[in-house]
Specification:
This protein is an alpha/beta fold. It is built from 10 helices and 13 strands.
Length: 329
């Protein structure tokens, strides 16, 4: 399996520091998670049944005409390549590595294209996969451009797959509203903005025929009963969402501003910042020695990604470690 952020147990073993002593900035997951409501007494006892309330809450929140819940968008990322015969696929790069990995694993011909040059290659493949906003760089492509690409691909039976896992803080960039069109597939995640990665809940927006094929491949009971109940509550809580949007905008600006004080020109979203770091391995090791786990990218996106600290103690700890790094540099 590919390496991902959040592997704090590995960090603890490698550096001999208990997990509780780490500041984990290795993911772009909101450190202030949605407060979990009590679940129904029989939620753990019964096989999970499809919950229309969850689907309706998701459709309202994401603005999509149809949505299918899945056990995290990773489930869809692994299933979608199995729904097509061998074909040519272009994937934005650098981006979330699971996309290329899973299409290659399924036997497709995969080419990774620089994010800024995707427009030149849309007609070179039958499937184009775009992460928007991009992970890890935060780059974005305007909805009108994506919709035009989707139309061109659909005309020859192709797909445009748009991974909007980090799209909650920029809802105006989403193309979920138009997923009743042929060949347009949008992936959404509850884990990032709501800080509920352990819930394993995501959604796919697409035409009904596509959702039916996906459901047949994934099989029954893919989303647990408790996950459905908690997801419905989170997606329906407009007050919490509004307050969290404001907080994340402030904290995202704070992180970008803090890095700029150390001459780091970063890019990203309200949930993380990334920059190409010449001494990325040394920086990651420096932070780990101080109990801060960051996301190190050693291949295409050679650099560092930082998530948000969840409290003032975390911000002070990060600042002190950046001070130490500046003195060493």
């Amino acid at each position: 399996m590919l390496e991902h952020g959040g592997n704090l147990r590995d960090a603890a073993a490698r550096f001999g520091r208990p997990e509780a002593d780490w500041l984990d900035l290795s993911t772009g997951i909101n450190p202030v998670f949605y407060p979990i409501p009590a679940t129904a007494p029989n939620a753990w006892h019964r096989l999970p049944q499809p919950d229309r309330a969850l689907v309706e809450a998701a459709q309202a929140y994401y603005g999509a005409p149809r949505m299918m819940p899945v056990a995290g968008t990773q489930a869809a990322i692994q299933a979608l390549p199995r729904l097509r015969d061998k074909t040519s696929v272009i994937i934005s790069a650098p981006s979330y590595a699971e996309h290329a990995h899973r299409w290659q694993q399924a036997g497709h011909v995969v080419r990774e294209v620089d994010y800024n040059r995707l427009a030149e290659h849309v007609d070179d493949a039958d499937v184009v996969v775009v992460v928007n906003p991009n992970n890890p760089t935060g780059a974005m492509i305007a909805p009108e451009i994506l919709l035009e690409w989707a139309e061109r691909l659909a005309a020859r039976g192709g797909w445009l797959v748009v991974d909007e896992a980090f799209g909650d803080t920029v809802p105006e960039m989403s193309v979920a509203h138009w997923t009743d069109r042929p060949g347009l597939i949008v992936l959404r995640s509850v884990g990032k903005f709501f800080g509920l990665a352990g819930l394993r809940l995501g959604f796919v927006a697409a035409e009904q025929n596509m959702l039916d094929q996906l459901a047949e491949w994934i099989g029954p009971w893919s989303v647990s009963g408790p996950a459905q109940q908690i997801g419905t509550a989170a997606l329906s809580d407009i007050t919490w969402q509004r307050e969290m949007h404001a907080r994340l905008r402030r904290d995202g600006d704070r992180l970008r501003g803090l890095l700029s004080e150390y001459a780091v020109a970063s890019s990203g979203t309200a949930l993380f910042q990334w920059w190409p770091e010449k001494h990325a391995e040394e920086f990651a090791h420096h932070m780990a020695e101080r109990g801060i786990w960051v996301r190190l990218f050693v291949h295409q996106a050679h650099g560092i990604r930082l998530g948000l600290p969840g409290d003032e103690a975390g911000w002070h700890r990060l600042t002190a470690s950046l001070d130490d790094w500046k003195r060493k540099s």
